[in-house]
Specification:
heterodimer, A: 331 residues, alpha+beta, Immunoglobulin-like, 2 domains, three-stranded mixed β-sheet, 8 helices, 10 strands, 46% helix, elongated, B: 330 residues, alpha/beta, two-stranded antiparallel ribbon, 14 helices, globular
Chain lengths: 331, 330
């Protein structure tokens, strides 16, 4: 609460000081500085600028270390005095050195002007906690226009809008994004290429077992699970038919997983499959349908024969294909 | 686990479904070809559902249902839907009798076992509503009294796929009440030659009354007993869900073509129609083939197409084909 009161008091005092300055006539008034404050330097970076150019006013002052001082915003001072200058960056205080119980402060203001003329800059205003107002003297600034040689003046076409050169900070995110996109594109390309070439992400070839190996392994696994012996006939026949459907799909390229039993048998009709194996498979699918969809409990010999029928079908069709490949090779 | 003796079940179905062969035989005496139509009439009859027929005039639609009525020895009536038809012309009304000096109920043509609603889309919505409400509730209210419709009660409504001008297309909610929508096509050349021969003969063959309506009612109870495994139920649900969220079944390409999918009533109808189909095939249990056999008839009128689909000439049939070729068969 006390801090708030202090800030409010300072704000009121600033406003009062600026008001007093604004009401004073246009004349140079020498206002003495307090004894504890010594202005060591007060200068602008350039005495003369062209309209719109920028200049830094820097003031270095020395005071006791414990002395507090607060500067009024210079834009407010300029505003109050209606000075023909513009504040680009308002007052910025830096501590340059602290030694022998004294501190050296630097106040910097970035200014510009869009009106030509020779001006004395408005004074810098500061306040102390004791309630004293301090006015720091200001330098003169000469703002000039570009001289036009009216005798040899030649009209030139308007120039386009000037662009500041791009900085690394501005460009860097875009470069990073570009690199990222290129990297992702490359990884995607590599993934698709390797997938087509049946290789893993690191380029190692993926060894895929032929369909008959997969089917025989799966059938062996089902046999080992002893499903029908434990009253899980439905699971047993579902496993066998799913394995066979997967095998038929991989071997003959028909969508057996989305086909009914009769559709599968229909699709195998023209495939040059041994008559006996075909009818065995048909029987197996029929029994499986009864078990899966009609709560049929098959006889023990039917259960025992189911896997051998499936294995015989896989072996027969695989061997048949091998023979065909051999014959084709000989031709 | 409850076990079903498949032999016993099949024997029962064999016995109870014997009349299916009789009906088919008698129908074939009169109807040449149109096996698909006859089969679906039987499915509708056994599954207690109504049928919407779409086909050009002269394709034996009326003859088919009339013959079926003759075979079952049931009451048949035909209502020609016209723009000036009133609900009372369908369901009946109260008539003042001067003799008894009081109002008497005059039942409409809907009080029959087999009703042919010819060109249903030619009548305004209020008449369609009256019929469809009676179809759903299986009862009609005239005055203060409610009258039960006879059993079996089968409505076969027809629609002409051409001449759409001046018609009142059935709203989606009303169409959903039909269990099956059957598209009737022209007969083959050989069949058409046979039709001419039959008509040139001195006497047109007539189907004999071989059954009683009670036989159909009893058969319906047996159809309900046809065993449907959980795997088949899941298959049905998957098919119906694929019409609603095709992207979940790897059919993302259908997402923009379907404006609305099939309702839960479609699942019920698909299950009942599959059971009836299994019964016709003399089986006591449903297999995936049965579901696929009735899939088009049950779903084709329950899937809404988007403008995009219509612009690309995509039909509900092609969508159903894609779905049944993608959903895994149990």
């Amino acid at each position: 609460m006390k801090r708030l009161q202090y800030i409010l008091l300072l704000a009121l005092m600033f406003a009062g000081a600026l008001q007093v300055r604004a009401q004073q006539p246009e004349q140079v008034i020498e206002i003495p500085l307090p004894g504890w404050l010594q202005v060591k330097e007060s200068a602008i970076s350039r005495d003369s600028i062209l309209v719109g150019e920028q200049v830094v006013w820097s003031t270095v002052m020395e005071m006791p270390q414990e002395q507090e001082i607060m500067f009024a915003p210079y834009s407010a001072v300029v505003e109050a005095e209606k000075a023909p200058i513009d504040v680009v960056h308002d007052i910025q205080i830096d501590t340059l050195a602290i030694k022998n119980g004294k501190k050296e402060l630097q106040a910097r203001i970035l200014l510009t002007s869009f009106d030509s003329g020779y001006y004395k800059l408005p004074l810098m205003v500061a306040l102390t906690p004791q309630g004293d107002t301090i006015y720091l003297d200001s330098p003169f600034l000469d703002v000039t226009n570009t001289q036009i040689d009216t005798a040899n003046f030649v009209m030139h076409p308007l120039k386009g809008q000037a662009r500041y050169p791009l900085t690394v900070k501005e460009v860097l995110p875009w470069v990073a994004l570009g690199v990222l996109v290129l990297l992702l594109g490359y990884l995607l390309y590599r993934y698709i290429r390797y997938r087509r070439e049946n290789r893993d992400f690191f380029g190692k070839p993926i060894v895929q077992d032929p369909p008959h190996i997969v089917a025989l392994r799966e059938l062996d696994k089902i046999r080992g699970e002893k499903l029908w012996q434990n009253g899980k006939e439905k699971l047993y026949y579902t496993g066998i038919t799913d394995t066979l459907r997967g095998y038929i799909e991989a071997r003959y390229g028909v969508g057996a997983m989305e086909m009914t039993s009769s559709e599968i048998m229909e699709s195998l009709k023209g495939r040059d499959i041994e008559e006996r194996r075909y009818s065995e498979l048909d029987g197996l699918f029929r029994t499986a349908d009864l078990v899966k969809f009609a709560k049929y409990v098959p006889q023990v010999d039917e259960n025992e024969e189911a896997i051998p029928v499936a294995v015989r079908f896989v072996n027969a069709t695989f061997e048949q294909e091998l023979q065909q490949e051999k014959q084709n090779g000989e031709e | 686990m409850e076990t079903v003796n498949i032999k016993e079940l099949n024997e029962r179905i064999q016995k109870e479904s014997a009349f299916v062969d009789i009906i088919s035989m008698e129908m074939n005496k009169v109807i040449v070809g149109q096996k698909h139509l006859v089969e679906n009439l039987l499915i509708g009859l056994l599954a207690d559902g109504h049928i919407l027929l779409e086909g050009m005039p002269g394709l034996a639609k009326t003859l088919a249902i009339n013959t079926l009525a003759n075979i079952v020895d049931a009451k048949f009536s035909r209502i020609q839907f016209t723009p000036d038809l009133l609900p009372a012309d369908v369901i009946g009304t109260m008539i003042y009798s001067q003799k008894s000096e009081q109002f008497q109920v005059k039942q409409g043509p809907i009080f029959a076992n087999f009703v042919l609603a010819d060109e249903i889309n030619r009548s305004p919505a209020k008449v369609q509503s009256a019929l469809l409400e009676a179809m759903q509730e299986r009862q009609v209210t005239i005055g203060d009294n409610t009258y039960k419709l006879p059993k079996p009660f089968l409505v076969m409504a027809t629609q002409n796929p051409v001449e759409q001008e001046g018609t009142y297309p059935l709203p989606e909610a009303q169409v959903d009440r039909f269990m099956l929508k059957v598209v009737v096509s022209y007969p083959k050349k050989e069949e058409e030659k046979l039709i001419i021969k039959m008509h040139n003969a001195r006497e047109f063959p007539k189907a004999q009354a071989m059954l009683k309506p009670e036989d159909i009612v009893r058969a319906r109870e047996v159809v309900k007993d046809v065993y449907m495994d959980e795997k088949i139920e899941k298959y049905i649900v998957d098919i119906v869900y694929a019409t609603r969220t095709p992207e979940e079944y790897g059919l993302g390409k259908l997402k923009d073509l379907i404006s609305y999918g099939a309702s839960p009533r479609a699942s019920i109808s698909l299950a009942m129609a599959s059971k009836a189909y299994a019964f016709i095939k003399r089986r006591g249990y449903v297999i995936p083939e049965d579901v696929r056999a009735v899939c088009y008839e049950v779903l084709r009128h329950r899937i809404g197409l988007t403008y995009e689909a219509e612009a690309e000439n995509v039909t509900t049939e092609s969508i159903i084909t894609d779905i049944i070729n993608t959903v895994e068969v149990p």
